[in-house]
Amino acid sequence: MPFLTSPIAWITGIPEPTLRLLMTLGLAYPIARVYNQMYIRGKGPIVSAATVTERNMFILLAGLGLSLFFNGSTIYHSLITVAVSYGVLYLNERFMPQNRLYGAAAVWGFNAIYLLAGYYFTATDEYDVSWTMPQCILCLRLMGFGFDYYDGATSVVKVEGPEATKKAEEATDHQTTVRPTEKVKPPSNLPLSFASDTPLAILPDFSQVLAYCYFPSAFLVGPQFSFSLYRKWLSTTPLQEEGNAVAQEEAEKDQMRYVFRCLGLAVVYLAIQQGIGGNYPTSYLLTDEYASLGLLRRIWIFMVTGKFVYNKYIGVWMLTEGACAYFGISYEGKDGQGRHLFGGLANALPLQFETSTSIDHVIGSFNINTNLWVKYYVFKRLKFLGNKQLSQFGALAFLAIWHGFHINYFTTFFCEFSVTLCESVLRKRLLPTVQTYTKSNAIALVAWKVVAWCTCSASLHYCVVQFDLLKASKAFIAYKNVYFLGHFILLGIFLVDKFVLRPVVRTPKDKVKAN
């Protein structure tokens, strides 16, 4: 609703769409506080079916209110997609209950077409904050929900949960089943957002699905999580199971410490972005002034610019993570010291990201739950291709088209895919030699970590600049100003590995390790 935010934007100098985004994320905090006061603080661990319904209605109305604040009249886009997606699955359940593939495929197709049509009709040459931003989050949420419904037809093992959860599920005629992943990994090693109980044996009530899609702290920029987690959260009060006031107070203190930690990190990242990142816009890389600088300075500015492209995402994700922790949906039990943990829906791990020495570290610390979503609903479903790299390429291609039609989305993910392959080549070639020194020399180990951190950071920052520039013509100018150095380095590594160096001979010991 620009008429509410425009005056504040004019006073603060912050662009109105950005201000509306931050205010929507911030408003989730007081909503979470009200929710805690009404349904958590001082309540017992047993949750009745009536209370579950009341909680769900609170979340639904609060989420719809925030969506209306952000989207205004364009809220109808999300309402249409949720209603149609649920309607398709309902018809599938009613007329073809034994074959859920049609319903899941229809949900995927409809949401993909709707989102891409939105991108097509609203896209500009700039990175826009519009209704398509929450729509892309909703798109994945409904696609995942469709697959969960499909998986529920083939999963037959029931999960015995807490008594309160069991009663609530029986009251709403819900059944919970186990994903085949359970046979490979124990539940304790699976992420909270997509644990083993994601398949849906029976289509849930529409009101719960609608509230799940509009969860106040997650509908706008994520994080992604399964419907099963939402349903479980509605019907339990895990912090109330301690049974005494002292333990309850400690649990609440741990929760608030985590909330303020997330909020503090968000403020730091966003303040740095506003105060320093504003001096390094990607548009500057296209100017004659930038082109006239010395090469080393151009490279330095290029890398710093790429760093701030990532920086803004971490700030926003930390802001929404704090609100999720305040609601308590991210609660994942206690650690060995008895401290309550609320990082189950973390979408970014700032310390790990800032110190990453490999692409694997980055994947595990940046946009975590989206990566997990793609892993479970795309990457693993491409197993029939018979090649891990093809599956990985397919997953990255899906992520690219999910972001929109701009060609730079595809070139960015292809560039990052190339960096991943290049990293594997370097690891294969260099590690056997390097480890002879790093295992016996602490200084050599530190030096190797520093080199790995520098190359990993440089690769990421080099690749992501084109993501923010959107158009291929702009990316060409930016990379031309640094002589396409990164592209030539990647190409050189592949060519040397393929045609100059001898193939690496794997010993039987290496093969055993690989298996």
UniProtKB/TrEMBL annotation:
GO terms for molecular function: 1-acylglycerophosphocholine O-acyltransferase activity; lysophospholipid acyltransferase activity. Pathway: Phospholipid metabolism; Lipid metabolism. Keywords: Acyltransferase, Endoplasmic reticulum, Lipid biosynthesis, Lipid metabolism, Membrane, Phospholipid biosynthesis, Phospholipid metabolism, Transferase, Transmembrane, Transmembrane helix. Its main location: endoplasmic reticulum. InterPro entries: LPLAT_7/PORCN-like (IPR049941), MBOAT_fam (IPR004299). Coiled coil: none annotated. It comes from the Eukaryota. The chain crosses the membrane at residues 58-89, 101-121, 209-230, 390-411, 450-470, 482-501. GO terms for cellular component: endoplasmic reticulum; membrane. It is a multi-pass membrane protein. Its EC number is 2.3.1.23, 2.3.1.n6. It is found in: Endoplasmic reticulum; Membrane. Residues 165-185 are annotated as: Disordered. This is Lysophospholipid acyltransferase 5.
